[in-house]
Amino acid sequence: MISIKHSLISSLFAVLATCAANGEIVNISSPSSSLLLDAEKGKSLKFLYYGKKLIDNDITVIATTAAKTDFYPVYGLGNSCKTALAATMPDGNMTLDIAVDTVVTDGAVTSIRMSDKVYPLDVDIRFRTFPDCDIIETWTEIRNNTRKDVVLREFASAHLPIPYGDVYLSSLYGTWANEARLEERPLPHGVVEIYNTDGVRNSQSSHAEVMFSLDGAPAEEHGRVIGAALCYSGNYKLKIDTDESDFHHFFAGINEDNSAYTLAPGETFVTPELAITYSTDGKGGVSRSFHNWARKHKLANGEKDRKILLNSWEGVYFDINETGMAGMMRDIADMGGELFVMDDGWFGSRYPRDNDTTSLGDWVVNTRKLPNGIGGLIREAEKNGIEFGIWIEPEMTNFRSELFEKHPEYIVRADKREIIPGRGGSQVALDLGNPKVQDLVFEVFDTLMTRYPEIDYIKWDANTALLNRGSQYLDKDKQSHLFIDYHRGFKTVMERIRAKYPDVTIQACASGGGRANYGVLPWFDEFWVSDNTDALQRIYLQWGTSHFFPALAMGAHISAAPNHQTGRVIPLKFRIDVAMSGRLGMEIQPKDMTESEKEQCRRAISDYKRIRDIVQHGNLYRLQSPYDNKGVASLMYVSDNRDKAVLFWYKTDTFAGQKLPATILAGLDPNKSYKITELNPIDIVPLTIDGTILSGSTLMSNGLTLPKEHNNAEDYHIPYASRVLLLEEHTSAY
Ligand code: GLA
């Protein structure tokens, strides 16, 4: 007889009452998906189904008819496929043989305990569900109950089997200034591995989030898609093995390469969570589920508005001084901004931070540059009616710093080896596995905030990999713990900071977009998408990033022309329109702008305030992909009750005689009518549709055909046309 256990409390009692089991079917459900497992006691845990939510009768049928496979395959006996867990027992036995022991549901968490049949080793697979989100978080806890060390050689968070089929993988890859490039390809036979070994910044190259489109080539708004995001700040590995079985085996977890972990007697190894989601509404459905979960449960202060800011970096780089900062504060306040962030270059006493070769670690204000200190700047911000924020990089030091001179033992370095420096030829990471370093890093933050409680925003940077793969703190036989312990230390520090300072906004920056990961975001309000602020390339950067992360987490800044990274000259209108589709900010020297440019930004900031709620808290629909090379990219955000939406439309390519496809909108209510208003207009003759009213139905079938040029004198015939259209429900009779 089969019993069924549901994870949602609403259905728990009804179903548990009918339980009587040899075979126990565990049904982990989100509001619209079901994950079905066969947890028969004494047997290995089997995967049955993950997909659209099932009714009880279907569960019973699937339980008896589905192709089964191990849900958490372990190394050792009876199978030759890739595995989730491998461990060496104290006596040298390298095999495992685990079987289900108990299934327990405690609130929103269901735990399935498996125990080794011979050795006292427990493996708990846990699942967390949310009544308001279509996400299931799953992770694994491995407990060593033997009297000696057990060495973990593999320790995946989860294994999700995907029935063999026409499955496409969407993933993100990249490099500095070109992060989050979208790659979509059919799953090949054999193994695909996506991994990170940086040690600090785990999303600068590839990302720990993927989507699987189950019905052939990925589509935005239709087709079955599974999304998965590994929530971890450190080295990770995602592995998809399409072997001779009936499944594509997807494994996700900490990267075990050179990271064998010695589990002491009584110790439990807790893996990071893998968040999974399933949608029948294409990739768009998966993105919206991740965004919803992020805002409600994952991201720090996920339901709060983000402020419009000016960051000093591209405006002045290291050239920080009081007059310059005061000028920038006046300018951003004058344009309607709400926050000024002083970036790198403000600190270092014996070694002033004038470039990237010195001073990290010496978090004291340089009084030559700022005679009235941070307090003086805060007073200036207050005078201008804006908030003040500041840059720090507390995990790092330079050879030329007072910190390094005092505590050379704090840095990550391999014994007997020359130290390989990172940025500036002199930057090294502090060993966050060392509790003294954890205290030090916490104190950098705590001291600043205690002295200046008015600080509203911290930009927390991390600009170097763990290039020296050894620890001065760890014992010789624990050197392979370096990466894992670094991130445990990071977690400890961030949790301490958040316990004391829940409200301060913290940006995760790591050489640009190196820390866009849900393992980081519980402590950070947002991340810097990329050091690349070129508006055209930003369309691609933000497109890829939006697959998994909501707009309010994505720092997007208006910068100068020519752009500092690409040298491209892009009109201000286009730069503004691209930045407005994320968390709007500026990264520019306002005093180099003309009055009319400032006025344009002033209007844009005021318009952004009108749409902030829709962009930052609405539902994203990606419409036309820049990757499709049709000369246009577009996306829109729609409010929850579909009474308001904003369309962002960008021309991405230009040639004579060009024809652009119409833009078919999505996510609106077909039965509502919407008044269209162009924001940030620059044309002499307004758009013909400006001020018109169209039904949601027509907007989502016929769409809008937007002109490929602006008709203002100044920008006429420039290749960079863009539009931002506000759609508001129109209720009165017309
Ligand atoms: C990194 C960041 C930049 C800036 C500099 C400062 O590169 O990504 O935004 O803060 O550091 O040195």
Description:
- The protein is of the alpha+beta class.
- It is 21% helix and 31% strand.
- The protein has 13 helices and 37 strands.
- The strands form six sheets. Strands 7, 8, 9, 10, 12, 13, 15, 16, 20 and 21 form a ten-stranded antiparallel β-sheet that branches. The chain has an eight-stranded parallel beta barrel with strand order 22-23-24-27-28-29-30-31, surrounded by five helices. Strands 6, 11, 14, 17, 18 and 19 form a six-stranded antiparallel β-sheet that branches.
- Helix 5 runs parallel beside helix 6 (373-383) and helix 8 packs parallel to helix 9.
- The radius of gyration is 27 Å and the shape is globular.
- It starts with a strand and ends in a 5-residue tail after the last strand.
- Residues 7-22 have low confidence and may be disordered.
- Alpha-D-galactopyranose (GLA) binds next to loops.
Tell me the layout of helices and strands.
Elements: E1 2-6, H1 9-16, E2 23-30, E3 33-38, E4 46-52, H2 56-65, E5 69-70, E6 85-88, E7 98-106, E8 109-116, E9 121-130, E10 133-144, E11 150-163, E12 168-175, E13 178-186, E14 190-195, E15 209-213, E16 225-231, E17 236-242, E18 247-254, E19 261-263, E20 268-270, E21 273-279, H3 282-298, E22 309-311, H4 313-316, H5 322-334, E23 339-342, H6 373-383, E24 387-392, E25 396-398, H7 402-406, E26 427-429, H8 435-451, E27 457-460, H9 482-500, E28 505-508, E29 526-528, H10 535-546, E30 554-559, H11 572-579, E31 583-587, H12 595-617, E32 619-624, E33 632-638, E34 644-651, E35 673-679, E36 693-695, H13 696-701, E37 722-729
Parallel strand pairs: 1-2, 22-23, 22-31, 23-24, 24-27, 27-28, 28-29, 29-30, 30-31
Antiparallel strand pairs: 2-3, 3-4, 4-5, 6-11, 7-8, 8-9, 9-10, 10-20, 10-21, 11-18, 11-19, 12-13, 12-15, 14-17, 15-16, 16-21, 17-18, 25-26, 32-33, 33-34, 34-37, 35-36, 35-37
Helix pairs in contact: 5-6, 8-9, 10-11, 11-12
The structure holds alpha-D-galactopyranose.
The site of alpha-D-galactopyranose (GLA) has 12 residues, from loops.
